[in-house]
Amino acid sequence: MKDEKEGIRLIKEVAKYDDERALSLLARCYEIGYGVEMNADQSIDYLERSMI
Q: Residue 46: exposed, middle, or buried by beta-carbon count in 10 A (0-12, 13-18, 19+)?
């Protein structure tokens, strides 16, 4: 669990710079609830940002 939380923290840090891969990974994590609470709205938001 700790590793998942640290991984999410690091991915979020990279996503701040609009990194397409990090945004896509976050979208998937929120979609399936990996390391974060499932949140469809958040997943869609990250997915849309990754396509810009």
A: buried
